[in-house]
């Protein structure tokens, strides 16, 4: 199972796996895969014969370890098993910028796995970036500000953008949502019409739970208003008002972010981005703390099965 490539993404060859035996092959090679992820931050297993959604779900379930059940999601997903989902149903023509999965939550996955059933006709790459390198190349004053105050996420759940609070929290009981928010450090406020508004402040820089390395770990740029396409931002602002955007980010002390700071963060991510087009049967496994990921716009059908595992407290 030789590795090739440079940078944070290392390829492992799975073409030796016989038809219908992808899960058995992954079981046998799981220690090498996990070791490669620990060394490099991400590993691409190429050549698996994943002939169905069930096979892809079993494959990601085999490598993620203890599953994490997603709460507080931003876009609809289909559920295929414990901690196993479809990729987010996000508009094909809109990017999902670099981020760390569930970095806004009190519990996030250490490992994320992606299995490709249908590669898109064009684009749709799940790109990766080394969060340690991003942290190193960001301006010291910007890092110091976020390290001192953390980052703040505001959300205004509505039935028109993203998902409603019922799906995000897995319940239609508002009192259960209140309990969840109180237990997880989230301020919750309900409007008279039943709309939910939340505010949470999380660390922007965390220590890797195994190596102790400092990592830039957040969704500051991805979920900020300045990362939205201009026409989307203008529409949402006109529809809901500047204080009612479905989501937005701030410095942890509540200070708004200017476009220049958000663009700078995205530019540093771009400097460290590694891209590899999807092929059928690819399995990408990332260390969600060391490695940010994105999803680029695409044309044509695209089906990726996602697994979230090894929960930890950032």
UniProtKB/TrEMBL annotation:
Query: Which GO terms of type biological process are on file?
Result: antibiotic biosynthetic process
Query: Which Enzyme Commission number(s) are listed?
Result: 1.14.11.-
Q: What class of enzyme is it?
A: oxidoreductase
| Single GO MF descriptor | dioxygenase activity
**Superkingdom of origin organism:** Bacteria
Domain TauD/TfdA-like per the UniProt entry, residue ranges: 23-305
Q: Which UniProt keywords apply?
A: Antibiotic biosynthesis, Dioxygenase, Iron, Oxidoreductase
Q: Which cofactor does it need?
A: Fe(2+)
Query: What's the protein here called?
Result: TauD/TfdA family dioxygenase
């Amino acid at each position: 199972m030789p590795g090739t490539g440079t940078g944070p993404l290392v390829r492992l060859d799975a073409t030796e796996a016989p038809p219908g035996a992808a899960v058995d092959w992954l079981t046998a090679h799981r220690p090498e895969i996990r070791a490669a992820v620990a060394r490099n931050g991400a590993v691409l297993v190429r050549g698996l014969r994943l002939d169905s959604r069930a096979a892809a779900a079993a494959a990601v379930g085999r490598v993620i370890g203890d599953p994490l059940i997603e709460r507080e999601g931003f876009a609809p997903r289909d559920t295929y098993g414990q901690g196993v989902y479809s990729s987010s149903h996000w508009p094909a023509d809109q990017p999902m910028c670099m981020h760390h999965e569930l970095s806004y939550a009190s519990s996030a996955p250490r490992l994320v796995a992606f299995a490709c059933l249908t590669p898109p006709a064009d684009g749709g790459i799940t790109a990766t970036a080394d969060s340690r390198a991003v942290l190193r190349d960001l301006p010291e004053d910007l890092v110091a500000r976020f390290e001192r105050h953390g980052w703040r996420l505001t959300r205004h759940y509505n039935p028109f953008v993203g998902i409603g609070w019922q799906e995000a929290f897995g319940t239609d009981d508002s009192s259960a949502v209140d309990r969840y928010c109180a237990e997880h450090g989230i301020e919750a406020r309900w409007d008279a019409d039943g709309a939910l508004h939340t505010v949470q402040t999380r660390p922007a820089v965390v220590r890797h739970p195994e190596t102790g390395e400092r990592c830039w770990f957040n969704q500051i740029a991805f979920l900020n208003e300045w990362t939205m396409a201009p026409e989307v931002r203008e529409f949402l602002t006109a529809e809901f008002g500047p204080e009612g955007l479905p989501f937005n980010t701030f410095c942890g002390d509540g200070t708004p972010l200017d476009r220049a700071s958000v663009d700078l963060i995205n530019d540093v991510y771009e400097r460290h981005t590694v891209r590899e087009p999807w092929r059928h049967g690819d399995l990408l496994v990332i260390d969600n703390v060391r490695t940010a990921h994105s999803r680029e716009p695409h044309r044509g059908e695209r089906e990726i099965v996602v697994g979230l595992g090894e929960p930890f407290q950032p």
